[in-house]
Amino acid sequence: MTIISFLILFPFIAALILAFMRKGTPVRKYTLFACCALIVAGAVYFVVNSLSDGHTMSFLTETHTLDTVILIAEWGLAALVCYYSFRYRKYYCAALSLVQTGLITWLELGGHAEVLPAAHIFSDNLTIVMCLIIGIVGCLICVYAMGYMKDYKEHHTEFKDRRSFFFAMLFVFLGAMFGLVFSNNLTWIYFFWEITSICSFLLIGYNQTEEAIKNSFKALWMNLLGGLGFAIAIVYCMLELHVADLQSLVALASQPGSAAIVSIILLAFAGLTKSAQLPFSGWLLGAMVAPTPTSALLHSATMVKAGVYLLLRLSPALCGNLAGLMVTTIGGFTFFATSLLAISQSDAKKVLAYSTVSNLGLITACAGVGMYEAVWAGILLMIFHAVSKSLMFLSVGATENSLGSRNIEDMHGLIVKLPRLAYVMIIGIAGMFLAPFGMLISKWAALRAFVDSNSILLVVFLIFGSATTLFYWTKWLGTLVAVHHNSEPIKNITKKSEWFSLICHSVIMVALCVSFPLISVSLIEPFLEGMFHVTMPPIIGTGNVIIMIMMMCLIAILPIAARFLTLGKKNQVVMSYMGGANTGDDRSFTDSFGKPKRLYLANWYMTELFGEKKLLNVSLILSAAALVILTVMAIGGAV
Amino acid sequence: MNWSVISMLLFIVLAPFAGGLLQGVDRKITARMQGRQGPPLLQPFYDLHKLFSKQSVVVNHLQDFLVCGFLVFIVFTGALFFWGGDLLLVFFALTLAEIFFIMSSCSANSPYSSMGAQRELMQAMAYEPMVLMVAIGFYMVTGSFGVSDIIGNSTPAIVWLPGIFAGFLYILTIKFRKSPFDLSTSHHAHQEMVRGLTTEISGNILGLVELSHWYENIFLLGVVALFLLDANWWSVPVAIAVCFGAYFLEILIDNVFPRVKWQSMLKSAWLVTLVAGVTNFMVLVLVK
């Protein structure tokens, strides 16, 4: 219990300390590192402790005082939203916030609700997984942010230096996420949910440019809309079902024909907005105006993971009903549509953003299927995605600081220009989609679960989406490995702290790929057995695990194999063929007039087929229509 | 030693010979279709021998490494398939091999091979859904992705999978690099971007690429055979006959159709996947 309170409260304290530390950079730096180390140590201690003690714990049945404190804090949040909404004349945000806070207050103070007493704090293996993701990946991002923001400030002198605020917000975010995953009481989850919404709003608006403010309000209203759904779900739960906690609600809704499905749909709706599923993908794409650590945090360890976390928790209640159909349709469609859209993007952060939305779509679809194989795939996807996406964002950020651009076209030949960053990036990309690395294993299990559940539409989305995913990642990989002749490495200004973070990520990535069967057996399978009350057969057989490990080994010994296959050959290195004579650096050739002519190799983006103009509005409309129709059908069917 | 290990070893040892002979036959038949005499049957082996004995000029050593990755994983793919492994894993390994190959030509950083790489990637995007559909089809019919389970069935899978089989034949044209879909690199001389993908590859490295293609072709014909094989012994000759038939069909198509634009390839391949593959899958969902 103590360790849980530490994990929830300490990040907030750390945030306070960092907020009041100005200018004294070395002191601030080491304070930040120390705070991160403490959080990681706390998370690891908690995990070891709860794994050795048994898996599930619950605490705090009676919490009147704490509830009052939370209610006051909620009004604080509402006041903050109102302040910003009035300052920038976005009154709808204020309205959304006031309505939901009002609803919750009415419920708490009006005394209408007679609910079953239940634990407010709950922890099981999914909590442990989330805890590791938030603690380790989140803290590594904070460590990276220290070095990154220094360069960022030097590159962007036009923005006001609000670094203290920035670091503080990162830690508030971590605290809120810990709170969210440890809470079982719906009002508490809702409270932390709102904190993450507002935190992301503040972080996205960090630069205070017109665009940043526009995008931050986009994030705010979409997430507040989800929050409104959440608040209504709580009201319905308490008044109609007399439950106030997530575990009981899911247990209740898992019985066929239960009226609890209405609140499940509303909660799922909140989950969809938070995990940026179509038609709500706009806020996450807009979030890339913020400095890279923000994006990394939003995309990997926090925020969007809160959405899919909630959906995964709800998944037993989504099996084989209309609510599940709503979630799988939106998730599957998002996976496919955003991977198409990613093809036409050349901005690295935008490709990453679309790929995040796409992967979250797959996790969402897995949760919506509601079968244990699918949920298994969903949880593994979440773990792998957190690490590899964070790695990708951080390496793109470091590359941007050194290269002065984050356009994928400018990363042409990165393996010569910034070799170490290129290798890190290759590990990240391989982790995103290649066999035998992480994500693919989960995609494999997901495919099987989709076929088993006979969901034709999902299978179609998955096979086409996989093909388009292959396209945009391989294109990027190919760009990185292009070797320019006579080209020198450029100065790598990546700081030590950034390197530390990047290397930790890479090591974790590779370790995860090797050790995933272990994670599955010790964490995920016991969790699913408890959740679905089944004995799980192994999802990926031992034989196939061995084959995948063989593939890893093959990749590892490939350099030796390459030596062996080309043994005894003295290959002569020449210039690339360009139709005219290569002038020597692979960038120009001698044309028919004897003049050097510049040459530029571009990737295919095919905007006329896959461009945002062509696809984005169509997919927004289609998904919005599907969302509305299926939600209405599901609620109508339940009431 | 059991049969699965033997057939895997047979693949590793014999596939290059079978693949080379197949190419010899291919060149002979193609020549006859065009009214030419054609090279001797063993010409591909002479070519390969010459490639290996030449000193090769390379643009960078990274490329050699990536080409070796291509060869190693193609052999791995085929070995896993003939060993009786999981079909999805087999296709994932195939994709990995393909990515090594694409990266190798990207690394050359020359306009022709880069363009070839982009087109190859487009081809991969066009055929990938159908390839996954094939694995799903087998799973629906036999309840397993394992190749050894699939061939142990009492009826051949094609009875249930005519649409998926037709779709697979369609994308096989892309995989065999036959016209009308030989966009990224071509066996014919009338290529507008020199040799596309393999422009910057020569000598022994090109020999390795050639060898990988032979392995790959035999593996692909193995997938064709998988549609026909069942527990009865006589399904083996039938499957071999159908493989020859399929390959002949590809040669015929190669000589009849002119190359198309990539747009037509992508659209038609996806359409065929949807119409033949997905419809077949839907029927299976209803029936099974």
From TrEMBL, chain B:
Alphabetical list of InterPro entries matching this protein: ComplexI_Subunit1, NADH_UbQ_OxRdtase_su1/FPO
Keywords attached to this entry: Membrane, Transmembrane, Transmembrane helix
Ranges annotated as spanning the membrane: 6-25, 65-83, 89-109, 130-151, 157-174, 218-249, 269-287
Localization: Membrane
Keyword Translocase: no
Primary localization: membrane
Gene Ontology CC entries for this record: plasma membrane
Keyword presence, Membrane: yes
Membrane topology annotation: Multi-pass membrane protein
Cross-referenced PANTHER family: FORMATE HYDROGENLYASE SUBUNIT 4, FORMATE HYDROGENLYASE SUBUNIT 4-RELATED
Protein name: NADH-quinone oxidoreductase subunit H
Organism: Christensenella massiliensis
